[in-house]
Each structure stands twice: as C-alpha cells, then as structure tokens.
Amino acid sequence: PSPAFAAPPPPAAARAQPPAMEKAKRRLTNLGVPAAMKAFFEDVEQAPPDAVFGIKNMYSKDTDPNKINLSVGAYRDNEGKPYMLDVVKRAEELLVKDTKRNKEYLGIDGHAGFRKVSQELIFGQEAKSLREGRVCTAQCLSGTGSLRVGFEFLAQFFPRRTCVYSSNPTWGNQNTVASKAGFQFKSYRYWDAKRRGLDFDGMVQDIQAAPSGSIILLHACAHNPTGIDPSPQQWQTLAKVIRERNHFPFFDAAYQGFATGDLDNDASAIRMFEGLGFQMLVAQSYAKNFGLYGERAGCVHIVAPSAESAKNLSSHLKRIIRPMYSNPPKHGAEIVTLVLKTPELFKRWKEEIKIMSSRIIAMRKALRDELVRLKTPGNWDHIVSQIGMFSFTGLNRKQCELLINEHHVYLLYNGRISMAGLNTSNVARFAKAVDAVVRATA
C-alpha cells in the first residue's frame, strides 16, 4: 500500500517483546520451522452425509407444508409428533422424588440393576444360562454402542480372524461398526426383490457356504430394513445350519416388543438359540420400545460356556469400555430399571408397546388399501405381511428420487420407509405420490 494508507507504527511498548518470546522464536528458527506453518487439516475433504440423517436434514430444509418424513426410525403419534411414553413420564416423576438418587458416575459396566433386568427381559427369567451364571453383561450406548463393544470384544478374543456375515440388505450402520473394529464383512442373501419377501433358501445356502467358524449377524425381530423375519420353523433350520458349520451368532435386538407387540414372542429366536446351548452375543437397545432415543440405553450380553468364563469375559468388556467412553449414562438406565422392576409400571409399558405396534399395523393396512383403491401397478400385499417399524416398499432409486424431489416425501433411496411416519392425515397423500411415481416410471 502507499505510504498514505500505511498503518501507523505501534507504540514502543507494543514493539518490545519479552525476552522469553524472543528466545522461543530463535529456537524455532534454529529448528528450521517456517514462520507461517501450513494448516494441519487443510487437505481434508468433506465426508459424505449419513444415509439416514442426511435425508433428515434435507427434510428439515424443505419449506413445503405438506412434506412427509419417512426416513428416520423413530416412533411418531397420529399427529406426526414425537411420542414420550406415559410410563416413562411416570418413572421420571418417581425418580425426581427419590431423595437417595445422585448423579455420580456409574461403574464401567453400568447400572447393576439395569444389567439384571435386561438379561431377564431378553433371555427370559428362567433361562438356563442365567441360572448358571453364564451370561456377562455390560451397559452400553444403546444399539450402536452395544454392537461396537461386542465387535471390539470379538476382534480381540475370537479364536480366528474371520468375516462378519450380515443380511443383504441390512441396517447400514451394522457393517460400518464391524469394519471399525477391524472386520471385513460379507453378506448372505435375505431379500427376494421379485417376490418382495424372504429369500430363505438363499439365506441358508450362503450361511452353509461361509467358512466354518464365521460370525453370523442376525436381526432378532423386525428386520431392518425389510420388515421380514424368518418363521419359527425357519429359525430352527438356521440354528441347525449355524451349529453344523460351527458359526458364532451375534443377535441385534433393537425392537423387542415393537415387532408384534409381544415381548416374549419378539425374543423367541434368541431364547431358542440360548435353549439350544449356543454361545453368542446379543446387542440390546431400548431406543424404540421405550422411546429413549436420546438416552442411549442398551446392553451387550455374552453367553459364555461357564460361570468362570463369564466372569473373565466381563473383566475384558470393562477393559474395552474404559478407554472408549469410560462409563455409560445413568438416566435412561434408571428409567428402564424402575419400569421393569415395578409391576404396575411394567404392565403399563406392555400396554403402550401394544398401542404403538397396533398403530403401525393399522398404517400398513391403510397404505395397502389405498394403493389397491388407486389401482397402483404391482402387488402391494408385502406391506401388510411385513412387521415392525419399517417397510421395504420395493420402490427403486429413481422412484425414490422422484418422491423426494417432486412430492416432498423423504425416504431412503433403497425404498425403506418408516411406517411410524405415516398417520391418518398423510397416508392417502403418500399413497397418491407412490402411485404417481410408479406410473411415471412404468
């Protein structure tokens, strides 16, 4: 700049630098450090958005008053609003009145009462493994955290490095979590796109063909994203194949009670495997069935060969958790423990689970009936044969893009929708949009 626009010289006091600073600058110069250092992370590019939360963000930015969000797996009431269970409100009221409560740290493996009631809920109070003390449990950060700790445990202690086999398709975060623990993953057939149902023969063939001693990741109920579960007889066949091939089952149990409205029925696959004497892992979450999405309440369970082994494995779960997140949050665990230990609250919780699952079943029927009324090309019976929170519609990516861009309906690009996002006010509008994109791409 010209002298006329030059800044005035700083005062003498400002120009003078402490001897220590001058000494430090000379030391850096002697080390060959340039005066202007390059930013450490300048070349880091933006990561791609998460498949689910990226679409949720698109929905949030959409100003259309009739937009519909069917992307995120969280329950909504018939007004389309987040639903806080009455039993959770009641439990919180009781907890606030408890003068003995505090906000101290939990232990590394979490709330002892929470671990116990979680074991009994998922395995059944009379489970042989519980009576024999062969189950070790750690409270974790809901479903994802339980999977992460479980896979880290397997990475350290599974007898041989192997692949994790998950269903095709599966919940997108499962494979990512497994890979972060160092596992490669492969898939077994699950969804039959032509029949829009379970490809059970393909599933069995792929699990049989997997190298002996592989880790088989299974959805306990309400398969995400397809909403299609094996029948009880098919679960028996799967157990037989997994035992013959010496595979290790790892169950993801995110929807107990939410699939059929019956807690015992939704845990039947896990209980069958436990009754047959399988060693296994179970990742358990209370996000959906308690509506505790933000409280991150969950558990990882290991069914061990003996009580002594369970004690040893528990010590290693703690060693995994301590440097990962130190210890889990307290509030959600206190809510779940109080509800499951209090007969009156437990009864009310089961009633509310039934209310939520029944509303979703009603929305399945309403959607199918509306598509039939519109004479939408194709067969839509799979919508009512599927169970749980999600429906795998069979819509292709082009049709999903049209729904998002032209009809303000937000769903995953693989065609998965959250049935909880539908209600009596928007189900007809959604069906009409589906009818339009199916006809436009015929």
UniProtKB/TrEMBL annotation:
Pro residues bias: where? 1-12
The protein's annotated catalytic reaction(s) are: L-aspartate + 2-oxoglutarate = oxaloacetate + L-glutamate
Q: What's a GO biological-process term for it?
A: amino acid metabolic process
**EC numbers on record:** 2.6.1.1
| InterPro entries hit by this protein | Aminotransferase_I/II_large, Asp_trans, NHTrfase_class1_PyrdxlP-BS, PyrdxlP-dep_Trfase, PyrdxlP-dep_Trfase_major, PyrdxlP-dep_Trfase_small
GO molecular-function terms, A-Z: L-aspartate:2-oxoglutarate aminotransferase activity; pyridoxal phosphate binding
Pfam name, any one = Aminotran_1_2
UniProt entry keywords in alphabetical sequence:
Aminotransferase, Pyridoxal phosphate, Transferase
| UniProt cross-references to PROSITE patterns, sorted A to Z | AA_TRANSFER_CLASS_1 (PS00105)
SUPFAM superfamilies in UniProt = PLP-dependent transferases (SSF53383)
Which cofactors are required for activity?
pyridoxal 5'-phosphate
Q: Where would I find the Aminotransferase class I/classII large domain in this sequence?
A: 66-433
Among CDD domains, the record links this protein to: AAT_like (cd00609)
* Region described as Disordered: spans on this chain: 1-20
Relate the assembly described in the record: Homodimer.
* Family according to the record: Belongs to the class-I pyridoxal-phosphate-dependent aminotransferase family.
Other information: In eukaryotes there are cytoplasmic, mitochondrial and chloroplastic isozymes.
Q: What is this protein called?
A: Aspartate aminotransferase
**Which organism was this protein described from?**
Lotharella globosa
